[in-house]
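Lecture 7 notes: from sequence to structure.

We start with a single chain of 234 residues. Read the sequence below before looking at the structure.
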Amino acid sequence: MSDNNDFDEDDIALNLLPDDELVERIQDDLYDGFKDEVIEGTEILLERKWEPADVLSKALVGGMSIVGVDFRDGILFVPEVLSAANAMKGGMAILRPLLSATNAPSTGKMVIGTVKGDIHDIGKNLVKMMMEGGGFEVIDLGINQSVEEFFAAIEEHKPDILGMSALLTTTMPYMKVVIDEMVAKGIREDYIVLVGGAPLNEEFGKAVGADAYCRDAATTVEIAKDLIALRKAS
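Now the structure, written as tokens:
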């Protein structure tokens, strides 16, 4: 039997799956980093008149949540997470314009950047991908960000969360510079501030006045969701 026939049979099988099995298949494909299959599954659910927000939350975010837990527990590693995030992007490319058109609410909005003097971004990039996988809108400022650049982004995007990353012990203190300036301007209480990076710890997070220290990308999503839920409840 030809390869084409094999592909067609798989194609038909995907179309014939009931919704719950198709969602499970999309999550498995996302976990395995199969971008084309995630795109196809997303399109099928939309053809079945699923709301874009439901496709996002039940299929894609559900799949990335499993990736996040296994990354946190040491079952998956950075290459696998990057592969899953790339598959997630395939589905998001289809959903994002539809979500914008329907004004579907996101989980929240985050501005994130590596602080001034620091050019490391692998950890920050992982956090961005996992946060997007958790349904957040993320504005990534990149590396070497000054107080002024953080403030300009806060003013423009009005996020729920400001995230700061540092990998050097020499750049860690700059987080306090940003937070102190937020206090001085009277806007500190308007935003959730999360900090992370290899040399940081919980004590440092408290010392600089952050809402939380996030030890890895997966826990960042959990902490962000919890803190936003607390804010909404209060």
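Confidence is low (pLDDT under 50) at residues 1-9. Keep this in mind for problem set 3.
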